[in-house]
Amino acid sequence: MFQAYILFSVISFANCILLGKIDNFVIIGAADETILNITRNQCICEMIQSNYSTSAFNYYSNNQTCQLFYSNITFIYVQYQLNTLILFVNQSNLAIQLVRSIARPVVCPSAVWNPNGTTVAGSANGDGGSSSSQLNNPFDIAVDSALSVYVADYSNYRVMKCINGSVNGTVVGPQLGFGIGPDTQHLHTATALYLDSTESNLYIADTHNCRILKWNIVSNNVTVVVGGSGCGSSLNTFYWSFGNIYVSDYNNNRILKFPPNSNSSTLGVIVAGTGTSGSASNQLNTPAGIYVDERDNDTLYVADRLNNRVMKYRTNETNGTVVAGGNGLGTSFNQLYYPRYVFVDSFGTVYVSDTANHRIMKWVKDARNGTLVVGVTGLTGTTPSRLNNPYGIRLDKSGNLYVADYTNDRVQRFTIDNSSC
């Protein structure tokens, strides 16, 4: 049966401005002009304005789905969302300002993954080295919307990029390998990566040079954004959120926050930990990976490595709560053994690289016990189902899991199975 829908309204048109794009999701803003729509990569964006109220929609031609937005004079809201969460900052009088979008996979809490991984970087048999098809102790990873994988190739003092479908990588960012000092073309152990929402900047933790570098993918420029003035503290991993950079200062048992536009002279503010190791709710013991939930007012998650737990800190709160582990070192599903990295999905499920147990675990929100995702507890190996000291973890836009398999010198991808959802 044919159906037609007609909407009558007295309107004036506003300009539909492309402010950014992630995974075919278009972000929109408005100005008082008379242009109606912009089409970009299978998405039609249209916006109308009436009496200082703005409505807009994105139509996705590939799956025939609409996404609707509406606003008052100062804010734009998401009324219906497809596969992502889009957050708009305050837009006073609908002037165009920086807009931040957060696109994370929608992974239902009961989802499972194929236990056999596929090697997407490095050698499948664990043969480490320095050629373009090899890695040497991959520490962390980042995945872009085209499913290219960036790898912090720790013991090769480089960052590698492998495009989807090829394990032959190219060196990106600093080009000259090992180096100590202020030269931005050298690295001294890369331990963490963060690809920003525009996919135009890759942030690199250059740990033993005690700094964070920003590589502009478009201009190929490398600059120092945090540290670089000596090693008063030792950073391990970091996370970028709305311009703020959170740093895991593992030797000093604390997490530092650096404001936007920081440089080598900027001092960080302590947001978790006291500077003294311990197991109280306000203490950390050699913190490793961190994750900042921008959806939840920058709630901070910390892999509290030697306390064998993951801690959650609300903004401006110094006492954290245990959300994974916390029951001593061990192999049970309510325990962790030197956790390294943490990731949180849009449902609040916490994923942990349980490094010394050679497995990836997840804790759904408020769960007391974790669930094994991939790996075999306590067993190592180079077969597709085994891990050997897993470090960095990421989910791509479809929910597939990527693991930096540190001692196996490879990056594994485990395909999600949503049939249980």
UniProtKB/TrEMBL annotation:
InterPro entries given in the database record: 6-blade_b-propeller_TolB-like (IPR011042), NHL_repeat (IPR001258)
NHL repeat positions: 275-316, 374-417
Annotated signal sequence range: 1-16
One Gene Ontology cellular component: extracellular region
Protein name: NHL repeat containing protein-like protein
One Pfam family this sequence matches: NHL
Alphabetic keyword roster: Glycoprotein, Repeat, Signal
